[in-house]
Task: structure prediction
Amino acid sequence: MSIDTETARRVAKLARIQVPEDDLPELAQEFGAILDFVEQLAEVDVDGVEPMTSVTPQRLKRRDDVVTDGNQQEAVLANAPDAREGFFAVPKVVE
Amino acid sequence: MSNLNNMTIAAARDALRKGEVTAVELTESCLSQIEQADALGAFVHKTPEIALEQAKAADARGHDGADLNGIPLGIKDLFCTKGVPTQAASGILDGFKPEYESTVTNQLFNAGAVMLGKLNMDEFAMGSSNETSVYGNAVNPWRRSGDEAYLTPGGSSGGSAAAVAADLCLGATGTDTGGSIRQPAAFTGITGIKPTYGRVSRWGIVAFASSLDQAGPMTKDVRDAAILLGAMSGHDPKDSTSADLPVPDFEAMLTGDIRGKTIGIPKEYRMEGTPEAIEKLWEDGTAMLKDAGAKIVDISLPHTKYALPAYYVIAPAEASSNLARYDGVRFGHRAKLDAGDGITEMYEKTRAEGFGDEVKRRVMVGTYVLSAGFYDAYYNRARKVRALIKRDFEAVFADGIDAILTPATPSAAFGLGEMIDADPIQMYLNDVFTVTVNLAGLPGISVPTGVDKDGLPLGLQLIGRPWEEGDLLNTAYALEQAAQFVAKPARWW
Result:
């Protein structure tokens, strides 16, 4: 399956990864090769097969809906590239 | 006692209990070896102060208790270790020091284990040669005879494999999403087990593909794998997919008696282009299990061929979702921004700078297969094929098969840089024998059983029934005893 440069650009945008314009053709080609490889899946008869959702058959456990952790502002912010006054700081989002 | 670092976990445990050695002596022996082994690129964050402190505490506690008390281990960089750099070998986690401990390392430390440092790996565990690491390559301690070329230790747990094979530590943790414990174990002549999905908590392990990821031990022999797996396993309320099942005493199950067991040999694993040495290894292994009293049965796992393509839809899809968290806001790297850059530019530049090429490729492939219009054709179809692959295994187990014997890898360790011009698919083929096991959530173990004409180690894989790691380890133990693999790499580092 061939992927065009425009599709590669769109996927890079969706993935929020900046890709220089010059690199897009090669990227498109690599996508194409990987998608060609996975194209074999079309040969398999999957009629009536449910997509696998759980690796091992088990019910998810439930617990009481109560606070189990918290009051860790300092630890939460400790690794932030830019934290100020108890918040994560980011470039201006709203004009 | 010299060369304490060469000991197995079991031998060191027994010597510690008898008072023949101290945890500090063991730890110092490993630390001194690590200092001389920078050429292997195995340890990427060394933690000698922590190690010695833990060793002293272990000696102070005495040695009547836990198996791992005072045992020096290496920890793959994927495990969050409190206050110690944890980067998943990625530039995007540069400087990240977790504020918490992963459940696995927490259990190991509670059992008295000593952490020597963090081990090299492929970036976010994506790779089969340890060449995608931001730290640079890990190098296989093994070389082809008469050849000084550097070989890959495999990946993604390449640093773990190199460290154990070179006796820099007594054992190491690894993780396995498509073969990342078993392939490096085979390439370096050590033992590695990926347990049943849910046996070991994933909490605090940097996520790659959550429905496939499992942690497991990488050790010098099967007994050590049993000991270390026992310490890593168990239910964890913080991982909703961790199984609330009792953990058996795996070591106690190592009798070596496999009489009456039925071993399946799957015909679909006879692949075109497999080297003769690996065909022969497989035949020899089959004969060994037969001589040990097992019944050998030819079986069919008809959807094997589709495992790799299904994996290369599902794993990137899950990765694209898991790696969305690396946004330059909460931890790790943030790109320097130009005037006028907004939050979108911050995301895009941060991720472009922080991720390596293979990670970017997989995140974007995952984004594509999950995008509107392609979700059904790729992602849902791959999940249906995955269900069929799992069904193949269920069918043979229902027919009375106890374990399945296959090669672990399609080749011996290859040279670093050898695959650089190959397309990504060539590298993906490394996982052809191991990836089915992750898709089906089964336990699989790689055991070294021979060497090729260049003197490089080769491994066989045994695949077991879900939750029956004890039985699987025992079959592996029987194979190990029959194979008598004792070769070690000649020291050059």
